[in-house]
Amino acid sequence: MAVPPAPRARNRRLGRDLAGAAGFVATLFLTFLGLLAITFFIGRVIPIDPVLAVVGDRATQAQYETARIAMGLDQPLWMQFVTYVGKVLTGDLGMSVSTGRAVVDDLSRFFPATFEMATLGILIGIALGVPLGVTAAARQGSWLDQIIRVVGLLGYSVPAFWLGLVGLAVFYARLRWVGGPGRLDIFYDGLVSPVTGVILIDSLLQGEIDIFWNAVSHLVLPASVLGFFSLAYIARMTRSFMLDQLSQEFVTTARVKGVPERVVVWRHAFKPIRVPLITVIGLSYAGLLEGSVMIETVFSWPGIGNYLTTALLNADMNAVLGSTLVIGAVFIVINKVSDVLYRVLDPRAR
């Protein structure tokens, strides 16, 4: 009996969807496997002896060899890599020499702090950068366009640590508008039980409103500094995309027909740039998650950047590789989310 056309079409669509999902999972797995290979071989190339980091410089040769065998470093390189992949897939990133805890436990404590600060920073960058970029393009050559371009230039040229120090000196030490370094004042530390690790969410879940506002006062300045650099990049790219669209024939046609300028800019010109803008925002967000080391150092922010810096100084290779792996995984996830959003916003990519 012949299959009706409608069910046959549904079956074809279902097959395409399943094939697409399988390809997505396979690409994700292979990318993650490549990331594991890169982090593993970087750990072997770096001129740091992980055995000495554990036993110390005064250990005897016998103690050194015992630790080396216990760490599996006497095995062939390919076998070490297989062991490393197996441990990572089971959630074992080793023990941190610096803290004496499992690296997974450390990352579960430090990464939410970076996530909290970077997320607020990218929201500030989007909320201000996109309108500024659109405005600059719509008023190309005006004094407003020049000011926005100068702001973008400052975002590229001003050192992050200098801007952070100036912000602390002005808004904390002088004006007392914001909280100082750290995530909370010292007398609030430890009063909120970690649930998500994000202090803003955990304090609200537990009804600690005072702690929530104290966390906001500490978060707003470092997040604003990150948001400024994100704003500069997003505004510059948005302006560039908009200038290209505003020169297209369909925009000229809309203006000739008497369509209001606001509608021309935001509906006709802005709509096509949403897809490339997703890439810009995704890269900016990933950069904030992995590149906030200087800001975390200046503000004594207990995030993954600060943790990674401390691990490097202490030759703590398990912590270094674990942090690098998490940062790389974040990039992979953000890129894949961007791919999904492409298909949602642009039917041609489906």
Automatic annotation (TrEMBL):
Recorded topology in the membrane: Multi-pass membrane protein
Top-level taxon: Bacteria
SUPFAM superfamilies tied to this protein: MetI-like (SSF161098)
Domain ABC transmembrane type-1: from-to ranges: 111-342
Subcellular localization: Cell membrane
Gene3D superfamilies: MetI-like
Annotated TM spans: 18-42, 117-138, 150-173, 211-235, 277-299, 319-342
Keywords: Cell membrane, Membrane, Transmembrane, Transmembrane helix, Transport
The keyword Transmembrane helix is annotated on this UniProt entry: yes
A Pfam family the protein falls into: BPD_transp_1_N
InterPro entries recorded: BPD_transp_1_N, MetI-like, MetI-like_sf
Keyword ATP-binding: no
Main location: membrane
Record family assignment: Belongs to the binding-protein-dependent transport system permease family.
Protein's name in the database: ABC transporter permease
Organism listed in the record: Devosia honganensis
